[in-house]
Write a structure and sequence with these properties.
The protein is α/β, with parallel strands linked by helices. Helix content is about 40%, strand content about 20%. Among the domains are: about 150 residues, no CATH class; about 130 residues. Helix 1 crosses helix 6, helix 10 crosses helix 11 and helix 11 packs across helix 13. One of its GO terms (cellular component) is cytoplasm. Pfam families: GH3 (PF03321), GH3_C (PF23572), GH3_M (PF23571).
Length: about 550
């Protein structure tokens, strides 16, 4: 393929694939002996950081083995680092927890109004960029070739960023990356800058949808989580007449919320497209009863993002209702503000590979509360569930991620994993330990039994009730008129009792009270998402709050019940 004849998007895509090929091939080689590479990574990390305040405190320079490391360095949580992070982020103090340069802090949701500052070294940023973008592009091209590269992508990320007193940036890492390429964003992605960095009250769903519809040649979709991609398609389905009218006339309907300044900037980027509008009238006149994505965008080959675990139901809906059997999914692995922990190794596969050259991994069997029983990569067993503990390139050592993964098999000698749930999204009012995965599966079965469209759900563990109880808040569309709330509530309680016998036993013994069920107003979870983004939380890290864990969330969701 002659790169000089490609569009700017095609040139970038092909260049990314070329750069990612060696990263992709190297990871596959490392899967033959992952423990050797992971130990080497740890030893080099300790050597590089032995003269930091933290390194001196725990004797990094004297550690010669993994067992030394585990015996000398304690398991940690975020609060253990606050005394270091404050002078780092505010005054730029160096060599406290890492010798590497830290010029960015990711904003991660914390407790009431107190978001975390997660340090990210330039070393970590480089690794994250390589595995998130370059590796992924090379992996995809190895699966389906490169015929798709010469067009723009529909990218649904929404971001904010600020500068701290120290001069470091604070917000989503992807925001920092995108600002570096601000001038070329329109050449690579369909959405305008005003959708990527939205002002308060900007209708970003309109902007993403409108600009995506204007481009027939989109090659792929990108969304941090698949639920937002599904919401964009649903938005098009519900508002196609307005969207088509605006595309035809080169206008923005007055009902669309955005400031006058944003409206002016966006209008400068659009022109009337009557031919494209007429195409849509022909497409949409027959409704959305058949997969619409390949009709709207014939070249859209795949969707990249998180679509496993609690998001698997969105993957199913996108394929069955909108995408069709030929629409592929690149199911991204486990990542967080602290780093990338795993990546996919083939399309459509929900399993992912750990990265032995970017994170040192430890694992606690979830059935064992003994924090002395911590395992390494080579000690994992297929079918077992583990809490992930990481040592990264940004100053976190033996850090509890609160993420639980399941070992699903092996690729060569590398364990393959799937993310299951977060420990802080487990409901445990009376020792029943109901996981987010169990809750999600029960709600999906309720959706199938009663033939409604589950948009999202949250549960409030009401510990103040006597006895304590689960309060389910579901956002659903098209609930049949003959289906009563009481029927859904009874089904949820019965199904949950079967899925988690401990829950069922405590219901019978009245240790837990009967569950309650309320309906949420339409777009409640989208409103919560928008509010969190406006507060600076990255959409790439913003998961739906399946379990309500603080008073702010409780007040928000209960205020929007029907």
């Amino acid at each position: 393929m002659d790169i000089s004849k490609l569009t700017p998007a095609g040139q970038k895509n092909l260049n990314d694939i070329s750069e990612g090929k060696s990263i992709y091939e190297n990871l596959l080689i490392m899967t033959n002996n992952p423990m050797e590479h992971n130990e080497k990574f740890l030893m080099q990390l300790l050597e590089d950081n032995k003269n930091t305040v933290y390194g001196k405190k725990y004797g990094f320079g004297k550690i010669k083995s993994i067992s030394d490391y585990q015996s000398k360095v304690p398991i940690t949580e975020y609060d253990d680092y606050i005394e270091y992070i404050i002078p780092m982020s505010e005054d730029g103090v160096k060599n406290l927890i890492t010798s590497y340069e830290v010029d960015h802090y990711s904003k991660s949701s914390g407790t009431l109004g107190n978001p975390k500052k997660i340090p990210l070294s330039v070393n970590a940023q480089k690794i994250m960029y390589e595995y998130t973008l370059l590796y992924t592009m090379a992996m995809i091209s190895s699966e389906i070739g490169i015929n798709w590269v010469d067009s723009r992508a529909l990218n649904l990320v929404e971001l904010s960023i600020e500068t701290l007193k120290s001069g470091a940036t604070y917000g989503a890492l992807s925001a920092k990356f995108m600002l570096n390429f601000k001038e070329v964003l329109p050449l690579i992605y369909t959405s305008p800058f005003e959708a990527f960095f939205p002002e308060i009250d900007t209708n970003t769903r309109y902007l993403h949808s409108r600009f995506a519809l204007m481009d027939k040649n989109i090659n792929m979709g990108q969304a941090a989580f698949y639920n937002f991609f599904l919401e964009i398609i649903r938005y098009i389905e519900s508002n196609w007449e307005l969207l088509v009218r605006d595309i035809e006339n080169g206008t923005i309907d007055e009902s669309i919320k955005m400031s006058n300044e944003v409206r002016k900037k966006v209008l400068e980027k659009i022109n009337p497209l009557p031919d494209r509008a007429n195409e849509f009238r022909e497409i949409f006149k027959d409704g959305f009863d058949k997969p619409i994505i390949p009709i709207i965008w014939p070249n859209m080959s795949f969707l990249v993002g998180i679509g496993t675990g609690g998001f698997s139901n969105y993957t199913k809906k996108i394929r069955e209702i909108y995408g069709g059997n030929n629409f592929k999914f690149c199911l991204m692995g486990l990542s967080a503000s602290e780093g990338n922990f795993s990546v996919p190794y083939e399309l459509e596969n929900p399993n992912s590979l750990l990265l032995p050259d970017s994170i040192f991994y430890e694992f606690r069997p979830v059935h064992d509360d003994n924090m002395d029983n911590i395992l390494t990569l080579d000690q994992l067993k297929e079918g077992e569930d583990y809490e992930l503990i990481i040592t990264n390139l940004s100053g976190f050592y033996r850090y509890r991620m609160q993420d639980v993964i399941r070992v699903t098999g092996k690729y060569n000698n590398m364990p393959t994993i799937q993310f299951l749930y977060r420990l802080n999204q487990t409901v445990n009012l009376a020792g029943e330990k109901t996981t987010e995965m169990v809750l999600s599966n029960t709600l999906q079965r309720a959706e199938e039994k009663f033939n409604f469209d589950l948009v999202e759900f949250s549960i409030y563990p009401d510990s103040d009730a006597s006895p304590p109880k689960y309060v389910f808040l579901i956002e659903a569309l098209n609930i049949p008129e003959n289906v009563k709330k009481e029927d859904i509530k009874n089904f949820i309680e019965e199904d949950l009792s079967k899925s988690n016998p401990s829950f069922g036993d405590k219901i019978k013994k009245r240790i837990l009270g009967k569950i309650e069920l309320d309906y949420l107003q339409e777009e409640t979870h989208l409103l919560y998402r928008d509010l969190m983004i406006m507060k600076g939380i990255s959409s790439a890290q913003l998961k739906p709050p399946r379990v309500i864990v603080n008073e702010v969330q409780r007040k928000f969701f209960f205020a929007l019940t029907e």
